[in-house]
Protein: diguanylate cyclase
Amino acid sequence: MSFTLLVLLIAYQTRWVYPEIHAYFSQAGNLTGQQLATRSRDYLQESLDLLLLDPLDAGNRQRAHFQMELAYSLFDIGLYRNEYSCTQPSLAALDELKVKLRSGESVLVGDLRNSLLGPIRCLTEIEMHQLDRRSSVTSAFVEDTRRHQGQVLFGSVVIFALGLVFWWMHERHRRSAERATRESLEWMTRALSDPLTGAGNRSALHQDVLACEGQPMGLILIDIDFFKQYNDSLGHPDGDKLLRNLAELIDETLGGQARLYRMGGDEFAALFDCADDGVLTGYCERLVAGLREAALHHPDHPSAATVTLSVGAARFIAGQAGFDAGYAAADQALYRVKAGGRNGWQVAQVKVVSSSDLNLEES
Ligand SMILES: Nc1nc2c(ncn2[C@@H]2O[C@H](COP(=O)(O)OP(=O)(O)OP(=O)(O)O)[C@@H](O)[C@H]2O)c(=O)[nH]1
Structure:
């Protein structure tokens, strides 16, 4: 936009200002009219000087005649004849004098004054008038140039200001778009995460599985044993603290390679790329070992002094059907651990050739 305005300003300058400048300089009459009159007057002055020196001397008369011819040719132009009334009588007086000089007729000093001083006065008048005209043309040109410069300066300032305004509007728009994107990202993150532990929620797990469509994945379901008793004995705030600590512990234990989710209550899930059962077994063992090492005190555990977990795991091919089957298998494995007295882990064997032929087998 600013660029367009700048181009228009330049076009205006080229179209309107420069032709005006040319027009001023092409007024040859105004600019040279004074010079012709000056030169013509000089020739007449020389002619007068020669004749006053000795009006009878043939050489003087001849040279004076020559000077008069020169003066005459510069004096006898349309501009002077049309605009200055003294021109015609002056040319006539010069014609008369030239005839006298050519014919050898005697020329009186009084005649000289009438014949030459008149034209000299006329030329002086023309000279003065042309000078005035030239200076008025020049000052009009200077004034117009100043006005145009003012217009260009004003235009440039306006264009600069418009540029600033457009930049500011663009910047404002960009910032508000950035803020909206950031807010919607934050909102989406909040919508997909558990506010207590910061882990993902059930929707996030679902979304992540679908994003890995077709890949072999591992799923571990983790449930705290006797968490109700923990809460009852230490209170819910401590129960919350345990949930947060466990989320961190599981994350660290799995080496940050698994994504962690809180499925609700005291149940967590871990999801990771998993090409074979060895990886799944390895993760379960690391979990149990990590928890044992942390030795988190449980004041009301019926069979242990520390917090224990029940873990069920399964492999599956990512996708809706594969996940449903894998989740059900891991959940059943977890149930079997609970039923078997808790504090342990089990891996459900699932055929993972394709999502259609997933098949549960107990490990
Ligand atoms: N502190 C706290 N407790 C919660 C939260 N969500 C659920 N609970 C509690 O977790 C407990 C879950 O109880 P149960 O489902 O019986 O599980 P459990 O006591 O661990 O028993 P088992 O799993 O059979 O060993 C309940 O007492 C819930 O009140 C929470 O966000 N914070």
